[in-house]
Amino acid sequence: MKAAGKSYPVPPDSVYVWRGFKSPSNTYAQFAQFLGSVFVPACALLQPAVGLRAYLPTMVPQDGKPAPVPDQTALMFWATPAAHDLANNAIAIRIYQNLHGDAYDMTRSKLPEVPVAPPVSPASLQAEQPYFLFDQPADWMQGKVFHLVGARRADLTAQAFLAAAGTWATAFKAKPPAGVDAALVCVGNDYAVAWVHSRDGKPKLAVALSGLTALTVPVMQASPVSKPLPAGLWNDWPGLDLTKDTCLNLQFARPPASRTTPSKPGKK
């Protein structure tokens, strides 16, 4: 299943920034198996028809990972800010959404997901609120991306960590690294996640996040691998092995005009 060659940039508030914690009733191996065989393919196969424009799921390594750091992250970009909610009018999407409870601890994972512009004052950065650092559209399926997941340094209090991250975000926004055209960041009391995007892939994206990285003990630093799904909904296929393909930018066909509401019964 190949990605469409045409670019489909979306506004920076059309993304959902997911930080997921596995259900305590499952081992991490069971969590990864379910996500790879059902949840992640279902997202990429079911949702483009109702507005999904890009999907970047990541499994966070468990070796040395502190418990407050998420077990999985994902970016889900939508054609418009309203498309995500309108998609729930379709029964296929409601079925997909109801899978969350089979994989995640929803008490811990139910966190703010829609990013907003960062506050004018760095001290006002809110824990668990995602922020976009560029107020312009971007196509995250195309180009290059770099993703950071880091635990708060032990020598920083939660308050100091958040304040320092706010200072970094303000400086980044005021003077963006050359070649970077989109960035997302979310800081909790004990961790930080961030993504940066380049249209042409020339800048060293890891360097663009070095100031934030320095505030953390990095758990994962990676560039998502562009990967098309080899099968569709009705093929005999076991799914993705997310113990090997841990950081992905899934490639899929994007309809030029997505249906954000389902057809009425009896009509096509």
Write the layout of secondary structure elements.
Layout (H helix, E strand, L loop, with lengths): L14 E6 L7 H19 L5 E8 L12 E7 L4 H5 L3 H7 L2 H4 L2 H4 L21 E2 L11 E9 L5 H17 L5 E8 L3 E8 L6 H4 L1 H4 L2 E7 L2 E4 L19 E4 L17
Parallel strand pairs: 9-10
Antiparallel strand pairs: 1-3, 2-3, 4-6, 5-7, 5-8, 6-7
Overview of the molecule:
The chain is α+β, with helices and mostly antiparallel strands. The chain has one domain (15-251). It has eight helices and ten strands. The protein has helices at residues 28-46, 83-87, 91-97, 100-103, 106-109, 158-174, 205-208, 210-213; strands spanning 15-20, 52-59, 72-78, 131-132, 144-152, 180-187, 191-198, 216-222, 225-228, 248-251. The strands form three sheets. It has a five-stranded antiparallel β-sheet. The chain has a three-stranded antiparallel β-sheet with strand order 1-3-2. The chain has a two-stranded parallel sheet with strand order 9-10. The longest helix has 19 residues, at 28-46. The protein is globular, with a radius of gyration of 18 Å. 43% of the residues are buried.
Which key phrases capture this entry?
single chain; 268 residues; alpha+beta; five-stranded antiparallel sheet; three-stranded antiparallel sheet; 10 strands; globular; disordered C terminus
